[in-house]
Amino acid sequence: MKRYLIERDIPGAAGLSAAELTGIAKQSNAAVTSLGVPYRWITSYVAGDKLYCLHEAEDADAVREHARRGGFPADLVVEVAGEFGPHTATP
Predict the structure, then answer these.
(1) CA distances from 42 to 11, 12, 15, 32, 89 (A)
(2) Fewest C-beta in 10 Å: which of 26, 36, 41, 57?
(3) Under DSSP, is residue 58 helix (H, G, I), strand (E, B) or coil?
(4) 31, 44, 39: which is closest to 70 by C-alpha?
(5) Model-wide pTM > 0.85
(6) Domains of the chain by range and CATH?
């Protein structure tokens, strides 16, 4: 599966309560289950007025369908071209 980074514009996202984030997680899990295709939600980050989510799917259409079923915006969906970090600094 490919990895996708999703940017979701949600005004006031940084002020969402733990209970609200739990509700969003439950909606996302239900949407994943309903898709009936290989799909994995990796993690999400809350920053300012946005959520940034990392998902694995066969294609961007599945990511957008997940968003539609979950009732979430998917303002930007981009395939991750590569990953790096401190662990990649030395071969």
Answers:
(1) 23, 23, 22, 12, 24
(2) 36
(3) coil
(4) 31
(5) yes
(6) 2-82 (3.30.70.3090)
